[in-house]
Amino acid sequence: MRLRPHHALCIQKFTGHGYDDRFTEHMTAICETLRNSPETKVNIISSCDELCAVCPHNLAGKCATLEKVEAMDAQVAKALGVRPGGALPWEALASQARKNIFETDEFIKICGACQWYDLCRTTKI
Ligand code: SF4
Ligand code: SF4
Predict the structure, then answer these.
(1) Residue whose CA is closest, atom 2 of ligand 2?
(2) Of 47, 51, 92, 105, which has the fewest CB atoms closer than 10 Å, so is most exposed?
(3) Quick one: which atom of ligand 1 is closest to the CA of 117?
């Protein structure tokens, strides 16, 4: 599965809220796949990924908030020690994200300005 770095966070904190019904349905299915098959290989990419595929903010293959998203991706990639082109099992990526971001000050530094932050902050994994 192809994912951009910061989606390793969003997938774990997802509680059924998305940009629109299509996006939410799609993301629900992805989260279920990863929950049921944690060994799924994740290819880290720096462009539109599996979640972006049906996002209303995906404008012809380019995120409408690209600057913000690229900054988050860079911060997450650094904190997790991953880079575009790399690959690892979902369970390893998810666990690194919990240890290096959710359980540290990196969480507010990376996600503090996101519209979903208050929801994600209070969502238990
Ligand atoms: S706060 Fe935003 S970027 Fe961070 S995990 Fe939640 S939805 Fe994703
Ligand atoms: S297109 Fe942009 S806003 Fe939509 S899921 Fe992808 S990164 Fe997020």
Answers:
(1) 63
(2) 105
(3) 1
3-state helix, strand, coil in the chain (%, to 5): 55, 10, 35
Q: Where are the alpha helices (DSSP H) in 16-116?
A: 21-36, 66-80, 90-97, 106-111
pTM of the model: 0.97
Pick from 45, 104, 99: nearest CA to 73:
45
Q: What is the mean pLDDT of residues 77-85?
A: 97
CA 73 to chain centre: 9
Q: Which helix (H) or strand (E) holds 106?
A: helix 106-111
Q: Which residues line ligand 2 (CB under 6 A)?
A: 48, 51-52, 55, 57-58, 63, 65, 69
Q: How far is the CA of 46 from the centre of ligand 1 (A)?
A: 17
Name the band, by pLDDT with cuts 50, 70 and 90, for residue 74.
very high
**Which tokens is 79 given?**
């904190």
For residue 7, the ligand 1 atom closest to its alpha carbon is: 8
